[in-house]
């Protein structure tokens, strides 16, 4: 299994720091944002410290990592033309950065239709993806399964299939499955993940899943909320989430934790839980005192 978490990328070390952070968690993969997820301020590719990061990855046999596009990209917005134009422009740059950094997967939230309706939103996402994807694009865009919060698109596999149907170079598309989002969207991740995959396979083969976001959820199944919880501490629970990491088809698929920072061992500040959660998942046994 390939287990990791999202990591930062900042300061002088940039991507080298990301790899160091991932290694400090005992991870064998990782996911990063190319800058703050909530804005579009980005450094030049030459300043990302890519060769040093790759040297360290190689030293530790790390091969795959994932890039996540910022949340403010909303290709589904037909209400504000500026938002859509910015999304297309920025996504083109993210594809370039992702390729330059050596990842083949850029995770993207499909978008939110902000009141214009699902059909208009999906048509706009298709139009946007057709503007950025080319036949020789080296990066796959992995559409993330969403919770359905607000007017979010992507809480049903059928919507993702409609996006694939409209995109010319849809061999460049992939899916990122987020277990918290699936739960919040109404899927029974806790008791029947196999059944969830069966529903998925009505639209896509499993090999379209390029990344898994492994998160527990603070909310009940179907809440349409999207609030991540630490592994084993939410409504999905440890056994179901650990089970996801043991599925043979996902042996080579990056499994990324996006669980919240928390107090650990009585710490004053909230700390990254990933080292403990990764170890617990590898071990396969839930420890209810892991953060004490
Ligand atoms: Zn995401
Ligand atoms: Fe996610
Ligand atoms: Fe989320």
Please outline the helices and strands.
Layout (H helix, E strand, L loop, with lengths): L1 E6 L7 H10 L4 E5 L16 H10 L6 E3 L12 H21 L3 E4 L2 E2 L5 H15 L7 E5 L7 E2 L3 H10 L6 E6 H7 L7 H9 L7 E6 L1 E2 L10 E2 L8 H8 L8 E4 L16 H10 L9
Parallel strand pairs: 1-2, 1-12, 2-3, 3-4, 4-6, 6-8, 8-9, 9-12
Antiparallel strand pairs: 5-7, 10-11
Helix pairs in contact: 1-2, 3-4, 4-5
The structure holds zinc ion and fe (iii) ion (FE) (2 copies).
Helix content range of the residues, please? 25-40%
Structural class: alpha/beta
- Biggest β-sheet strands, sense, barrel: 8 strands, parallel, barrel
Low-confidence stretches: none
Number of helices: 9
- Gyration radius over CA: 18 Å
Name the strands of the widest sheet in spatial order.
Answer: 1-2-3-4-6-8-9-12
H/E element sequence: EHEHEHEEHEEHEHHEEEHEH
Oligomer: single chain
Mean pLDDT: 97
Quote the distance from N terminus to C terminus.
Answer: 27 Å
Strand content: 15-25%
User: Overall 3D geometry?
Assistant: globular
Number of strands: 12
Ligand identities:
zinc ion, fe (iii) ion
């Amino acid at each position: 299994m390939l287990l990791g978490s999202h990591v930062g990328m900042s300061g002088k070390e940039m991507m080298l720091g990301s790899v160091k952070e991932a290694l400090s968690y005992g991870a064998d993969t990782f996911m990063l944002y190319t800058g703050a997820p909530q804005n579009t301020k980005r450094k030049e590719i030459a300043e990302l410290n890519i060769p040093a990061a790759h040297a360290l990855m190689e030293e530790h046999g790390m091969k795959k990592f994932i890039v996540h596009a910022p949340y403010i990209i909303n290709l589904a917005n037909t209400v504000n033309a500026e938002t859509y134009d910015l999304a297309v422009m920025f996504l083109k740059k993210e594809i370039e950065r992702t390729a330059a950094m050596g990842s083949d997967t850029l995770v993207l939230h499909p978008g939110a239709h902000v009141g214009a309706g699902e059909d208009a939103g999906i048509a706009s996402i298709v139009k946007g993806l057709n503007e950025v994807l080319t036949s020789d694009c080296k990066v796959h865009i992995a559409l993330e399964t969403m919770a359905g919060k607000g007017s979010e698109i992507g809480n049903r596999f059928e919507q993702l299939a409609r996006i694939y149907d409209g995109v010319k170079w849809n061999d460049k598309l992939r899916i990122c499955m987020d277990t918290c989002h699936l739960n919040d969207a109404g899927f029974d991740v806790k008791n029947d993940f196999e059944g969830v995959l069966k529903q998925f396979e009505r639209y896509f083969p499993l090999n379209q899943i390029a990344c898994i976001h492994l998160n527990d959820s603070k909310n009940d199944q179907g809440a349409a909320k999207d609030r991540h919880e630490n592994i084993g501490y939410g409504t999905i629970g440890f056994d179901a989430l650990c089970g996801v990491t043991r599925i043979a088809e996902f042996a080579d698929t990056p499994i990324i934790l996006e669980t919240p920072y928390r107090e650990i061992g009585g710490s004053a500040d909230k700390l990254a839980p990933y080292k403990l959660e990764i170890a617990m998942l590898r071990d396969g046994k839930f420890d209810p005192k892991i953060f004490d």
